[in-house]
Amino acid sequence: MHGDTLYSIGELARRTGLTVKTIRFYSDRGIVAPTDRSPAGYRLYGIDAVARLDLVRTLRELGLDLPTIRKVVDRELSLPEVAAAHAEALAVQIRVLRLQRAVLTAVAERGSTPEETELMHRLAQLSEDERRRLIGDFLDAVFGGLDAAPAFAGVMRSMTPELPDSPETEQIQAWVELAEMSLDPGFRAAVRRMTEGQAAEQARSGLMGPRRDIAAAVRAQAGPALTAGIDPASAQADPIVAAFTAHYAELLGRPDDVELRRRLATRLERVNDPRRERYLQLLAVVNGWPAPESLAPVFDWSVKALRIRTPQ
What we know:
By secondary structure, the protein is mostly helical. It has 15 helices and 3 strands. The chain has helices at 9-16, 20-28, 48-61, 66-73, 79-110, 114-124, 128-143, 153-158, 169-183, 185-208, 214-227, 238-252, 258-271, 274-287, 296-308, and strands at residues 7-8, 36-37, 43-45.
């Protein structure tokens, strides 16, 4: 084909797959200007119009507006720069759509009230700084002011959610539920009680050298018993209970008596709060961590074994 070949709008439409109306529209806006006119006054286009129209169609399908496309085809703007800016804008739109989808899905699944929906929508749209302040306030309420606070630095870090820049829908939903929990005064008070119990144990164990906290000791003793199918009421459970109660007595520097066992049962019941486990599950989703193992069966077994052997 010779470079000076000219095409009518109809021929150009057949070559590009665009409609005559669309090509005329682009031509009227100066995006694809005619090279010449026929004796009858009809527009004629050169071979370069085919390439320009192919580029225009591609950019339109990618969502670029016509004024920007005109500047690109006229080389007033760099296509890579325009593509980068447009990709960034699309990323923002995608994030907004993901947030909206996550909230609407949660509303549908939970049967939320208008008030709950409004709160979820607000929590989903928090900036990174706002999310950090919200969680920081929660962690301050749980850990602040304790004598053993420095020992909890690692624990505090492990309880901090870090929503990624481009979160999945499940991560957004988990963040919203986790944020709601962190704002709940009842949950804050429950976690604070757990922390105070652990702080008291750590303060005492610091005087004697490193000691495993009681929750870890119970897991180590009762976990195998649960796996082996030992009945918490059976005689086989006696030495297991004796082992972790002795550990707790050593932690607190108190005798292993009825009062200590009652106190230990209460401590384990607090650690076994299902809200705490739910928080850790949500935290794993938000941070992209493996799902944590549920310790509820171990603590249930231990509390039952303790209660059976402790006079009320």
